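Q: Hi! First time doing this. I have a protein sequence and I read that you can turn it into a structure. Is that right? Here it is:
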Amino acid sequence: MDDDRRVLRDADVLLRDGQVVALGQSLTTAGEVVDAEGCVVTPGLVNTHHHLYQTLTRAVPAAQDALLFGWLQTLYPIWARFTPEHMYVSAQIGLAELALSGCTLSSDHLYLYPNGVRLEDTIAAAEEVGLRFHPTRGAMSIGESDGGLPPDALVEEEAVILSDMARVIDAFHDAAPGAMCRVGVAPCSPFSVSRELMRDAAVLARDKGVMMHTHLAENDEDIAYSLEQFGCRPGQYAEDLGWVGLDVWHAHCVKLDASEIDLFARTGTGVAHCPCSNCRLGSGIAPVRAMRDAGVPVGLGVDGSASNDAGNLVAEARQAMLLQRVARGADAMSAQEALEIATRGGADILGRPECGRLSVGARADVAIWDVSGIEAAGSWDPAALLLAGPNTVRDLFVEGRQVVRDGQVTTFDLQAAMRKQAVLANGLMDG
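A: Yes, that's right. Below is the predicted 3D structure, encoded as structure tokens:
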């Protein structure tokens, strides 16, 4: 995934001080040597949309077969009981799951803050797991009593939202190349915040020099709501409020029409494609082929674990490839292109051109995939990971630090965290 999309064979990758410093044959080092014979080495994958808190609410029975709006209305009361501990542990598990699937950089969209929850609950989890993190301070401000979808107990006053957005940016955002944490702003969706908050959040983000994220055009219900409430399609709504540009990326965009695709292409507005969640909620197949052909920046997102219900990014890349083939034919998307969307594509959307590449000067975010197992047995092209390859990494490096070794997370006690997660999930079920 360098600029020339080279596939190197029998090659070495030299990492030093958090960067890739050389690629080629017969490289030497006085440091540690990791033997990757029988493996494929890729850049770390990039996740552009997640709700990490949802790993505590997978496969909730009443929400298993619901469309988006009904699914949300079922889960909102459960999420309203979350505490900072729920958020921290759920983020730990979600980030570890991502790491095992080859992800080195993940965004997160946290838009509800009950019972003293703060964005730093997830930031602390990312620091412990060791992944590069791009949390966004989300928000909901229009409750049921004002015509919105969320219950009133989960919405916040808009002045409080904007103040806290500024606080977390000032406290945690690092604009330096190679930063381990950058912060964005992310009002939840057109059906849970006001136009005024969308405008004010955009002004704040641009004043602070951070990125902007929200949900857009996810399904037919979403389009109908926009037409009824705003008298326009979601693309025009976004444009009118300043929500297009290189500093903006929208999740889903399943129902973008040709004019909206053209708008996003002209403005460099990014799209976080979440194929598994879109299938799970019956939202449809996003027009990714048309977006890519038009020049829209596209990355991948696993979305929340209550709507996927997994957090495996390499599986997401395979699903993206397969859905475009279902919609447009077997030649609609190659395994190589899907892997590019999962690496460079996502990194570029998040404003991280130093990530998602295996090239000199890129950050030392590297995934090692063992293709000697049964998943790839008989494969004529080991680099075609999405056609025949493992769903978990053997080894993973983030900023040169080993986060996964021999298929096991090395940075914290995952088993203990999973036991804690089980206790918390059982408590939510008992309630």
